[in-house]
UniProtKB/TrEMBL annotation:
<dbReference type="GO" id="GO:0005886">
    <property type="term" value="C:plasma membrane"/>
</dbReference>
<feature type="transmembrane region" description="Helical">
    <location>
        <begin position="224"/>
        <end position="244"/>
    </location>
</feature>
<protein>
    <submittedName>
        <fullName>VANG1 protein</fullName>
    </submittedName>
</protein>
<feature type="region of interest" description="Disordered">
    <location>
        <begin position="1"/>
        <end position="86"/>
    </location>
</feature>
<feature type="transmembrane region" description="Helical">
    <location>
        <begin position="153"/>
        <end position="172"/>
    </location>
</feature>
<dbReference type="InterPro" id="IPR009539">
    <property type="entry name" value="VANGL"/>
</dbReference>
<comment type="similarity">
    <text>Belongs to the Vang family.</text>
</comment>
<feature type="transmembrane region" description="Helical">
    <location>
        <begin position="184"/>
        <end position="204"/>
    </location>
</feature>
<keyword id="KW-0812">Transmembrane</keyword>
<keyword id="KW-0472">Membrane</keyword>
<feature type="transmembrane region" description="Helical">
    <location>
        <begin position="111"/>
        <end position="133"/>
    </location>
</feature>
<feature type="compositionally biased region" description="Basic and acidic residues">
    <location>
        <begin position="36"/>
        <end position="45"/>
    </location>
</feature>
<dbReference type="Pfam" id="PF06638">
    <property type="entry name" value="Strabismus"/>
</dbReference>
<feature type="compositionally biased region" description="Basic residues">
    <location>
        <begin position="19"/>
        <end position="35"/>
    </location>
</feature>
<feature type="compositionally biased region" description="Polar residues">
    <location>
        <begin position="74"/>
        <end position="86"/>
    </location>
</feature>
<keyword id="KW-1133">Transmembrane helix</keyword>
<keyword id="KW-1003">Cell membrane</keyword>
Length: 523
């Protein structure tokens, strides 16, 4: 418990290193003040709100101040935090308001479709029962007695309705994974077909049985059985159209993210454009690495710095053409050598990443070694004094906190990992007796989008842009775009070519040969 109390005093907010003078605190505060003033997101147009409990391990301004920091930055700076604040831009406010407006309309459309399907399904299941019960209620005394065959038909109708109920529940009544802009054509056609089918059965029943008060009760029951059989065949048709038709791969789609060019290939069957877009998005969240705008901002700043040239001004109005030509030539030479600067800058960044990765791995291994030593000590104590995994994680976290912070800041991943999420992951690894390498796997390599919290995704609301109708099927050469607020996915559809495979027969006897040896030898 004392180790847990040391954690609270050692790591408050983001990090709190004690034992430094007030002068060092003022120097560290001034050091972070300059990049904050240059940040456009901290302008007067931004709105400041309170941060949710899962706060990032480091703010975005820490990544911008990274270039001007040395490797020993955490050892000479004191950071004292109070109430944490977070800035949100006007674009974020517009995105939040747009999501709220769209969610109301989408919910209404979703519940309307579910209501129509539920009402039609209830009508389908009650119709055979009504066909059997109405004659018993209206003209029971005039009906012919129901024999053994008629009573056996009751059992047939009951079990067929039970099978139809289970199949309908498994096929149709599933939680929707997404809201599509248009109706699903095959599902709508099946609903229309079922409605027309049931309506025609009711029309025939009303004209030929209700009006004439048919006394052949066994025939009426057989009529209800034929309705249930037809409904079962319609259910088989729905399985073929909704599930089996799309299983055979017919197209290959290439998905490219517009910001960094990351691409993946997927095989799809006969699908409409909107359903193909759903498949692409489902695979995007598990296959593509998480979108990190900080990496793009860093590359753009480097490119802008290297492309910047020298500007020549003639202040006095004198003819200084020779000097101007010399300065222009110097600017051209500077642009020609910019690739060298970019090469050495990227090499220095890779060296810094490798060094901090090595420091992080050593710190984590030492922390896990300390955990094993604590576990050996806890086994000698009474059962009531055992430390749970959460307390153990809080005990060893300060020893690796600074190395993890500096590595995440260097690789610009600090906005995806909060202190609470790191502690939860650490306690999970301790509970399941995982190795330091298993703990670091999440932080050394960027994972897919599903690995992170939903508020770190940067992509929740998507817009489908297509020249063709979104209800039309996939065709060779179709290109459609899935847009969100920060980036877009460009999808190019190619048809799998027809493969002609021929067979060549090889005669087994062609592999046989005869070796003839001459017994006579030359002397």
């Amino acid at each position: 418990m004392s180790a847990a109390m040391d954690t609270e005093s050692t790591y408050s907010g983001y990090s709190h290193y004690s034992g430094h003078s007030k002068k060092a605190h003022r120097q560290g505060r001034d050091r972070h003040k300059s990049p904050r003033s240059k940040d456009g997101s901290r302008s007067e147009k931004s709105v400041t709100i309170q941060t949710p409990p899962a706060e990032p391990l480091l703010g975005n301004d820490a990544s911008r101040a990274e270039e001007g920091q040395d490797d020993n930055w955490g050892e000479t700076t004191t950071a004292i935090t109070g109430t944490s604040e977070h800035s949100i831009s006007q674009e974020d406010i517009a995105r939040i308001s747009k999501d709220l407006e769209d969610s109301v309309g989408l919910d209404c459309k979703r519940y309307l479709g579910l209501t129509v399907a539920a009402v039609l399904g209830l009508l389908v299941f009650l119709t055979p029962i009504a066909f059997i019960l109405l004659p018993q209620i209206l003209w029971r005394d005039d009906l012919e007695p129901c024999g053994t065959v008629c009573e056996g038909l009751f059992i047939s109708v009951a079990f067929k309705l039970l099978i139809l109920l289970i199949g309908t529940w498994a096929l149709f009544f599933r939680q929707p994974k997404a809201d599509i802009p248009r109706v699903f054509v095959f599902r709508a056609l099946l609903l229309v077909l079922i409605f027309l089918f049931v309506f025609s059965y009711w029309l025939f029943y009303g004209v030929r049985i209700l009006d004439s008060k048919d006394t052949n009760y066994q025939g009426i029951v057989q009529y209800a059985v034929s309705l249930v059989d037809a409904l079962l065949f319609i259910h088989y048709l729905a399985i073929v159209l909704l599930e089996l038709r799309q299983l055979q791969p017919m197209f290959t789609v290439k998905v490219v993210r517009s910001t960094d060019g990351e691409s993946r290939y997927y095989s799809l069957g006969h699908l409409s454009i909107q359903r193909a877009a759903l498949v692409v998005l489902e695979n995007y969240y598990k296959d593509f690495t998480v979108y990190n705008p900080a990496l793009l901002t860093a590359s753009k700043s480097r490119a802008a710095k290297h492309m910047a040239g020298l500007k020549v001004y003639n202040v006095d109005g004198n003819n200084a053409s020779g000097q101007s030509r010399a300065m222009i030539a110097a600017a051209a030479r500077r642009r020609d050598s910019s690739h060298n600067e970019l090469y050495y800058e990227e090499a220095d960044h890779e060296r810094r990443v490798k060094k901090r990765r090595a420091r992080l791995m050593v710190a984590v291994e030492e922390a896990f070694t300390h955990i094993k030593r604590l576990q050996a000590e806890e086994q000698q104590k009474a059962p009531g004094e055992m430390m749970d995994p959460r307390e153990a994680a809080q005990a060893i976290f300060p020893s690796m906190a600074r190395a993890l912070q500096k590595y995440l800041r260097t690789t610009r991943q600090q906005q995806y990992h909060s202190m609470e999420s790191i502690l939860q992951h650490l306690s999970f690894c301790i509970t399941n007796n995982m190795t330091p390498k298993a703990f670091l796997e999440r932080y050394l390599n960027p994972g897919p989008t599903l690995q992170y919290d939903r508020d770190r995704w940067f992509s929740k609301q998507w817009t489908l842009v297509s020249e063709e109708a979104v209800t039309s099927g996939l065709q060779d050469g179709i290109v459609f775009v899935l847009k969100c607020l920060d980036f877009s996915l460009v999808v190019n559809v190619k048809k799998i070519p027809f493969i002609k495979l021929s067979e060549e027969f090889i005669d087994p006897k062609s592999h046989k040969f005869v070796l003839r040896l001459q017994s006579e030898t030359s002397v």
